[in-house]
Amino acid sequence: MNKELLADPSLATAVAAIVRRAGDLILSIYETDFAVRGKADASPVTEADERAEALIVPALQALAPEVPIVAEEAVAAGSVPEIGAWFWLVDPLDGTKEFVSRNGEFTVNVALIHEGRPVLGAVLAPVPGRLFVGVEGQGAWVEQGGTRRAIRCRAVPAEGLTVVASRSHGDAAALEAFLAGRRVAQLTNAGSSLKLCLVAAGEADLYPRLGRTMEWDIAAGHGVLAAAGGSVKTLAGAPLRYGKPGFENPYFAASGAA
């Protein structure tokens, strides 16, 4: 992988096609009476997670054979590749709890990491058919209903912040403490990496995550947000980086334009 390939618009097009194929597969399972199992960390997993990953991984390998792939279900099974300056992060079904509860707020996530930064991110919400893509140096966009439009983080409105919080992993007391002293106009909940994309699209301003996440949970959404002019920082104010030992994130806040 090199920066010239990243600059080629066909790379984002190819990744978008892969996540769309995974989304179609997931929807075909979503319509059935699927089984839910527990993983070693007690998180749920379904046939949709496993089959979507089995589709995405070889497709990315064909696209860039030299780039290692860190994929959630493979890591859960003990398969952790050696990573270098470039690697993919894959969450084939982010928001499995949303998938199981059938509220539609689950996503397919693919991110390309270069030197700790997400330089390409693709996030598909299969139920509404909403695809977010961001590429460093090319900007971010959303595709839905056969149309594509550019997206950009907004300046915080005079009436205050629109804050998005986790639907399934919220800590109300911690969130209240974090927001103390800030002018908040609206607080809403959303599932999966959609929260990062809502900030990228100028539909929200701040997403504080005061709970456990793994790198594959947020890297694709972070890539979209960064390409749209936003940032993800630790609570100490440092840029969130990828390729950390164990792939676990510290608490963070994702925000739009200053």
Can you walk through the features of this model?
The protein is 32% helix and 30% strand. It has 258 residues and is of the alpha+beta class. Strand 8 and strand 9 form a beta hairpin. Helix 2 runs antiparallel to helix 3. The protein is globular.
How many β-strand runs?
14
Coarse shape: globular
Strand order in the sheet with the most strands: 3-4-5-6-7-8-9
Q: Output mean pLDDT.
A: 90
Q: Pairing-aware structural class of the strands and helices?
A: alpha+beta
Topology:
Elements: H1 3-7, H2 9-30, E1 36-38, E2 44-46, H3 47-63, E3 69-71, H4 72-76, E4 86-94, H5 96-101, E5 107-114, E6 117-125, E7 130-135, E8 139-144, E9 147-151, E10 161-166, H6 172-179, E11 184-190, H7 194-200, E12 206-209, H8 215-227, E13 231-234, E14 252-255
Parallel strand pairs: 3-4, 10-11
Antiparallel strand pairs: 1-2, 4-5, 5-6, 6-7, 7-8, 8-9, 12-14, 13-14
